[in-house]
Amino acid sequence: MSKIEKIVNSKSISLYWRCQIIGWGTVSIYWAYIVFARDHYGYFLTFLNYIFDILIGITLTHGYRFIALKLQWNSLSLPQLFRKILPSIILLAVLYMLVVNIKWHLFWQFIGGKEINFWNSLTYWDPVLLTGLRLMSIWILAYHLYHYYQNKIEATQQNAKLLVIAKQAQLDNLSAQLNPHFLFNSLNSIKSLVIENPETARRAIDLLSDLLRSSLYEKDKGLIAIKDELALVKDYIELEKMRFEERLQLQVTVDKTLESFKIPTLSIQLLVENAIKHGIDSKIEGGIVSITIKKDEDFVSIQVLNPGRLFLNNTNKGLGLKNLQERLKIQYKGNASIVLVELNQNVVEAKIRIPFIDNEEI
């Protein structure tokens, strides 16, 4: 059984092979007709020539596809790609001419019984070379246009998926900010301050307003500078300290050169919220939420530490963390990560690692 027959008989033939077989099979019908009608080939020789023409076309173009995939030409920009495919078309056309001429020489030499000079057969270029240029141009352009179109669709789908996840994360974050427990404690604290300390009460109202506003609108930005994200976190901590007082402490260590580096909006705040909810709130004595942001080789490392335990029933990430993980996966094409581990019996670490990109074009 030939390679083509095996491909045809396979249960799950790919679109690529369907196009290859149907395309070259259709084109080769014309030449089969020519040799049958003009050169008076018999049925067997016509069919044999037809199979050879299909194999020549598939072999050359499949070899090109193998090289293009290996060198990742489909990821190049259009100007870069055209600089690659133009010489490739010429090379493939020359190879096509040589192989077809060798085929014809063998046919006439061994089947037709004619003595023909091999060099003359090999260098016969008109119209074989022109046919090769035409066919290879059509095939290569169609191949890359299809993949260019597919890449555009994939990018559009990923952007749409990222937007949906970001919106869902926005709703999750808003829900966290607006949950009855949070609002009840915040408003109670503000209520007690209205008479005792009106200035602090006004400050608390401003903080609560800013947090709710950031939950509603900051997500639309997608990315935010680290210094701006930390400003939101500090506002959140300041508001929560009205409830926890000295039980809640914040330590921030950040590489100053990374302050303008952009990260997914509200990602650090989500880690801090979890640290307070699952760590500080469960400790009578409270504790310190520590944020460390630094360069780690080719990555930006964002570490949040809090006292507490990572119990077995809490090892599965919550909805907010799962959404953040998915956002990181899409935004950075699988090169970013978020990990939640227990360093010892008293400290839980949440760490985000994001590829460091100087121009921040993600």
Question: Layout of SSEs?
Answer:
Elements: H1 3-9, H2 15-37, H3 43-70, H4 78-111, H5 118-122, H6 128-178, H7 180-196, H8 198-217, E1 223-225, H9 226-244, E2 248-254, E3 262-264, H10 267-278, E4 287-296, E5 299-307, H11 319-331, E6 337-344, E7 347-355
Parallel strand pairs: 2-4
Antiparallel strand pairs: 1-3, 4-5, 5-7, 6-7
Helix pairs in contact: 2-3, 3-4, 4-6, 6-8, 6-11, 7-8, 7-9, 8-9, 9-10
List keywords for this structure.
about 350 residues, alpha+beta, Heat Shock Protein 90, 2 domains, five-stranded mixed beta sheet, two-stranded antiparallel ribbon, HATPase_C_sf, Bact_2-comp_sensor_kinase
How would you sum up this structure in a few lines?
With 362 residues, this protein is α+β, with helices and mostly antiparallel strands.
